[in-house]
Amino acid sequence: MTSTRRPIYVLNGPNLNLLGVYGTTTLADIEEAVRARAAAGGWDVEFHQSNHEGVLVDRIQEARTEGAAIVINPAAFTHYSIAIHDALEAAELPVVEVHLSNVHRREAFRHTSYVSLQADVVIAGAGAFGYEMAVEHLLRTLEG
Ligand SMILES: O=C1C[C@@](O)(C(=O)O)C[C@@H](O)[C@@H]1O
C-alpha cells in the first residue's frame, strides 16, 4: 500500500552500514522490518544511512519539509553533534532516538546525548527491535 501521508524518516549515522559485519542483523534487515511495520499502519518510510554529519543534517532538513516524523540512530554523532541537535530542533517534528545498545551501560562518553535534548522518546538497548518500537510509538501518536 502506498500512502499519501508524508513518510517517516529513519536515519542512521556512521558505521551502522557495518552492522552485518559485527553481528547477524544487517541494516537492510532493520530497514525491511521497519518498512513492514510502518506499512501495516499505512505509513511509508524514507530510510537512510550516512557516515557524514552534513549528509545527515541535509536529510533532517529534508524531513522538515517532506516528512512526518524522524527516527534517528545518530551513532557516534549522538555524543557530540551540535549540528544534528540544531537540525532536529529546526525540524519541529516528532523525534525518536534509537540506540541498539544500552549506551548508559557503556563508556562514560556515551552517556551524553545532544540528540536526547530534541527527542520525544529515547530507546536504547533493545537491539534492532528498538527501531520497530520507535515506529510503533509513531503509529500510535501520529495523526492521520
Ligand atoms: O555507533 C554507535 C552505535 C550506537 O548508536 C548504538 O546504536 O548503540 C551507540 C553509539 O555510542 C555508537 O557510537
The total of beta strands comes to 5
| CATH homology superfamily | Dehydroquinase, class II
- Into how many domains do the coordinates divide? 1
One letter per element, helices H and strands E, the order comes to EHHEHEHEEH
Over the alpha carbons, how many angstroms does the gyration radius reach?
14 Å
CATH topology: Rossmann fold
> Termini separation (Å)?
15 Å
Bound molecules: 1,3,4-trihydroxy-5-OXO-cyclohexanecarboxylic acid
> How are strands sequenced across the largest beta sheet?
2-1-3-4-5
Organism: Pleodorina starrii
Pfam families: DHquinase_II
Keywords: Lyase
EC number: 4.2.1.10
Can you describe this structure?
The chain has 144 residues and is α/β, with parallel strands linked by helices. The chain has a single domain, classed as Dehydroquinase, class II (Rossmann fold), CATH 3.40.50.9100. The chain is 38% helix and 17% strand. The protein has helices spanning 19-22, 27-40, 53-66, 82-91, 129-141, and strands at 8-12, 45-49, 69-73, 95-99, 121-124. Strands 2-1-3-4-5 form a five-stranded parallel beta sheet, sandwiched between helices. Strand 3 (69-73), helix 4 (82-91) and strand 4 form a beta-alpha-beta unit. The longest helix has 14 residues, at 27-40. The protein is globular and about 40 Å long. The mean pLDDT is 95. The structure holds 1,3,4-trihydroxy-5-OXO-cyclohexanecarboxylic acid. Residues 15, 73, 75-76, 78, 99-101, 103, 110 line the site of 1,3,4-trihydroxy-5-OXO-cyclohexanecarboxylic acid. 1,3,4-trihydroxy-5-OXO-cyclohexanecarboxylic acid (DQA) is lined by residues 15, 73, 75-76, 78, 99-101, 103, 110. It comes from Pleodorina starrii. One of its GO terms (biological process) is quinate catabolic process.
